[in-house]
Amino acid sequence: MTPGYEYDINYLHQEAQARWLKPAEVMYILQNHEKFQLTQEPPQQPTSGSLFLFNKRVLRFFRKDGHNWRKKRDGRTVGEAHERLKVGNVEALNCYYAHGEQTPSFQRRSYWMLDPLYKGWESCCKITCLFDRRSNQNGMIPVGKRSNVN
């Protein structure tokens, strides 16, 4: 993200209801977390387009949201894929995502910052979870494993 560049928080919240946010947008939210209200409890069965901001040290079980996510081969653990996303030319974000058990196009993505400057700072604990259901029938963009995480 270009230093000094500002996003409109309300605009980003509105955009998150229609599409995946770009890494620079997610980074802006995490760096400016005080402009958002933190979620105090895991939401129960959040709908498509929901955006939440958690402190993962306070709310350790934020993933317990009432949805059935695809499991690993052991049948117990949720299978989450992991990527590091770049903002500009620098790896800046961790992204973990899970697919719905009944509807594979339903995804949960969790993001947090990699920057060591934030390690001792409370902001490193913030996680943004995005839920999205995309299909061609309702005119939304299909979600690919990697192509729409940009």
UniProtKB/TrEMBL annotation:
Domain annotation CG-1: ranges: 9-138
Domain of life of the native organism: Eukaryota
Keyword Transferase: no
InterPro entries found in the cross-reference section: CG-1_dom
One BP term from GO: regulation of transcription by RNA polymerase II
A GO MF term: double-stranded DNA binding
GO CC terms of this entry: nucleus
The entry's keywords: Nucleus, Transcription
Subcellular location: Nucleus
Alphabetized SMART domains for the sequence: CG-1 (SM01076)
Presence of keyword Transcription: yes
Protein name from the UniProt record: CG-1 domain-containing protein
Organism: Vigna mungo
